[in-house]
């Protein structure tokens, strides 16, 4: 293992932000005896006063990308030579910021956390899983508890995976799709029943199909059949077809006008075996879905708001998303939790994630649960949640990475193992990075919610 940083050297930093991440970074820097000026939401005069004296680096740690962009540009205007670390979720904004400010290092808590979340989703013994350039690297702990990286290959898909992919086609997961498929099934069943009946009466197959189509289209039964039973049955089928056609039309309109989060056929159908269920398609959830898909692991998302911006983005990326509450046992059972590889509760609200984890334990106790926690003020001590599953504190992961970058360490990633957080170095090694509790920050008492 690589050695951790040397905290003896005295430095000066400016932190901009009123988030838990900003509090954690501020507290850790103060614990290292660094000079810290922490500005929650500074105006231009406050920021200009803070930047009047030289500083080693500035960190802009906000939830809003537009505000982060504005502060980064203002800092660069006041001090063109100072290194800046900025957290930005939107990659378009991040690319533009890098183009405008080459001295700026842009990162996203969602990007930093997704490998640490993907690892335990794929396998219980993996601390983090990175997929880059066509190859994947898994971080495991050796016998001494030291993290080490090794090549990782997904197991070859067996017959159950192929059958699961086939069985997932033409499955309904919303009311509109159920109406459409129910109506279509009724129409086809009526057509088949009439066709078989006419074949039994001695009609040629093509003629029998033509007359059966007349019944389904409510034009009328075959005119040369004098069977009273057939006339009664065909009358019932014609009346039933009216109902089935109305169901099919209503379902089709609902699906065409709705968000169409799940496909009926193709890769955007809901997997039925060996998949990961991601609850909460926010920034972290969406990046986790993309990471798992890049690693070849089937994934399906659950989001309460079907019109959320990231849900539309997930649809464009080919990721199936079901509208519903992750704590609803009926939703989890419909997504085949018992046959899933893992469930990841990664919403922005810790209490909601706990509710999802408890519901998952009730539906399938043996299914692995990965839980995002650490934001809520009442449960900052995430170790108390260990009985619910594998815990990942996105704030701690991001804080360690930001601190490394502020101190000039060229970190390329961050992992968590046990109760420790380590940053990944360019040589592939890992350096443990101790963090202070966010209560050590006296500048912001309570962070704004994400």
Automatic annotation (TrEMBL):
GO terms for biological process: monoatomic ion transmembrane transport; potassium ion transport. Residues 273-395 form the RCK N-terminal domain. The chain crosses the membrane at residues 179-198, 229-253. The keyword Ion transport applies. Gene3D superfamilies: NAD(P)-binding Rossmann-like Domain. Keywords: Ion channel, Ion transport, Membrane, Transmembrane, Transmembrane helix, Transport. It comes from the Bacteria. InterPro entries: NAD(P)-bd_dom_sf, RCK_N, Trk_Ktr_HKT_K-transport. This is Voltage-gated potassium channel Kch.
């Amino acid at each position: 293992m690589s050695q951790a940083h040397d905290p003896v050297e005295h430095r000066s930093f400016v932190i901009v932000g009123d988030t838990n991440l900003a509090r954690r970074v501020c507290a850790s820097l103060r614990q290292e005896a660094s000079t810290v000026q922490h500005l929650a939401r500074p105006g231009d005069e406050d920021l200009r006063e803070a930047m009047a004296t030289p500083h080693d680096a500035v960190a802009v740690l906000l939830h809003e990308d537009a505000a982060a962009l504005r502060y980064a540009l203002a800092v660069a205007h006041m001090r063109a030579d100072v290194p800046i670390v900025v957290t930005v979720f939107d990659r378009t904004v991040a690319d533009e910021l890098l183009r405008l400010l080459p001295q700026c290092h842009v990162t996203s808590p969602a990007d930093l956390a997704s490998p640490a979340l993907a690892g335990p989703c794929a396998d219980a013994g993996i601390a983090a899983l990175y997929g880059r350039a066509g190859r994947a690297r898994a971080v495991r702990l050796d016998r001494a508890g030291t993290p080490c990286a090794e090549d990782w290959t997904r197991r070859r898909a067996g017959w159950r995976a192929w059958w699961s992919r086939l069985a997932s086609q033409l499955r309904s997961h919303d009311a509109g799709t159920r109406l459409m498929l129910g109506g279509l099934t009724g129409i086809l069943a009526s057509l088949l029943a009439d066709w078989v009946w006419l074949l039994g009466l001695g009609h040629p197959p093509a003629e029998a199909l033509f007359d059966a189509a007349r019944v389904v289209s409510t034009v009328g039964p075959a005119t040369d059949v004098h069977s009273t039973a057939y006339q009664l049955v065909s009358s019932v089928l014609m009346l039933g077809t009216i109902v089935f056609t109305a169901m099919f039309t209503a379902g089709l309109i609902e699906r065409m006008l709705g968000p169409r989060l799940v496909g009926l056929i193709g890769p955007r159908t809901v997997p039925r075996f060996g998949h990961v269920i991601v609850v909460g398609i926010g920034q972290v959830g969406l990046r986790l879905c993309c990471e798992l898909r890049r690693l070849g692991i089937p994934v399906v998302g659950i989001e309460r708001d079907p019109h959320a911006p990231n849900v539309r983005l997930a649809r464009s990326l080919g990721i199936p998303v079901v509208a519903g509450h992750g704590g609803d046992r009926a939703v989890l059972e419909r997504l085949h939790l018992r046959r899933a590889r893992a469930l990841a509760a990664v919403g922005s609200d810790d209490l909601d994630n706990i509710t999802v984890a408890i519901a998952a334990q009730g539906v399938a106790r043996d299914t692995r649960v990965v839980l995002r926690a650490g934001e809520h003020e009442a449960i900052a001590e995430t170790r108390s949640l260990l009985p619910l599953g594998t815990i990942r504190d996105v704030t701690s992961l991001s804080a360690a990475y930001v601190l490394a970058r502020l101190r000039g360490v060229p970190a390329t990633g961050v992992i968590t193992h046990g109760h420790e957080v380590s940053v990944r170095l360019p040589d592939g090694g890992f350096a443990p990075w101790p963090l202070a509790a966010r209560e050590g920050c006296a500048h912001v008492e309570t962070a704004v919610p994400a």
